[in-house]
Design a protein that fits this description.
It is built from 7 helices and 7 strands. It has about 270 residues and is α+β, with helices and mostly antiparallel strands. It folds into 2 domains: about 90 residues, Orthogonal Bundle (Helix Hairpins), CATH 1.10.287; about 140 residues, 2-Layer Sandwich (Heat Shock Protein 90), CATH 3.30.565.10. It starts with 10 loop residues before the first helix and ends in an 11-residue tail after the last strand.
């Protein structure tokens, strides 16, 4: 059999192909350098703030315990400092999560955990923020739901969804629900805030996407993207149901049984 003739590539075309390949390689190196810088910067920015947060929390607690001997203005300033440091650490952590996911370095460590206890613990952390934003926090948690999941990943998913709900809830109630459904657990985080149209719902889990309707939110717009990637890494699903002016409900479904150990966490 006679081999088909090979296509003839002109020297100009070959040169252009070589140039494009070199450009692609340069772009890959630039992206890697950017991600490495983000990871290093996020790590270096976050670590020194952890002890500062500890001191801020102790100072605020001491001010509260002092009663009338500490001026209300000082108490308010200490509370504001604590909140500011917490927000700084959250942003640095999100940047670090982004760099790890993009670099393929996300590795989960699943163990048997009480999902109900994790959800209640995260909700407790947001009690003060909810009261400050005048958003009543409603908990509807089925007790004793146990599963084989990464506790830190689950905590961060709930944390990101709660933070998002309080940000866009505009002073209305936020509900956290948890139910077991056979071999899965279903978690809902519902707000009654600005809501989203269909176009926003289709893009909300992308990187650097934010709801902007009636709200100029701060942050990087990566919280829901990180939550989506973490849920996927735990072999779960995340979805959103929303209407403009009527709020949004984010639903996470997670398997309660251990997944195939050979399956990649990314």
């Amino acid at each position: 059999m006679i081999d088909p003739p090979k296509p003839c590539v002109s020297s100009d075309a070959a040169s252009e192909i070589a140039r494009l390949r070199q450009l692609v390689d340069e772009q890959r190196l630039a992206i890697r350098a950017r991600d490495d810088f983000i990871a290093i910067a996020a790590h270096e920015l976050r670590n020194p703030m952890t002890p500062i947060l500890g001191v801020a929390q102790l100072a605020y607690a001491a001010a509260l315990q002092s009663g009338s001997t500490c001026p209300p203005r000082v108490k308010a300033l200490l509370e504001q400092m604590q909140v500011a440091v917490e927000e700084f650490i959250k942003r640095a952590t999100k940047l670090l999560d982004v760099s790890r996911i993009e670099a393929g370095n996300l590795r989960l460590e699943p163990s048997e955990i009480d999902l109900s206890a994790v959800a209640a613990s995260v909700a407790q952390k947001y009690a003060v923020a909810a009261a400050r934003g005048q958003s009543p926090l409603e908990l509807d948690l089925e007790s004793g739901i146990v599963g084989f999941l990464d506790p830190l990943a689950l905590e961060q998913v709930i944390d990101n969804l709660m933070s998002n709900a309080l940000k866009f809830g505009i002073g209305k109630a936020v509900t956290l629900r948890l139910r077991s459904e056979g071999r899965s657990a279903k978690l809902d985080v519902q707000d009654r805030g600005v809501g989203m149209d269909q176009d926003q719902q289709s893009r909300i889990f992308g990187r650097f996407e934010q709801v902007v309707t009636q709200h100029s939110g701060s942050g990087f717009g990566v919280g829901l993207w990180v939550a989506n990637r973490l849920v996927a890494a735990m072999n779960g699903r995340i979805s959103v149901s929303s209407q403009l002016g009527q709020g949004s409900t984010f639903t996470v479904t997670l398997p309660l049984e251990a997944s195939d150990p050979e399956q990649s966490a990314t």
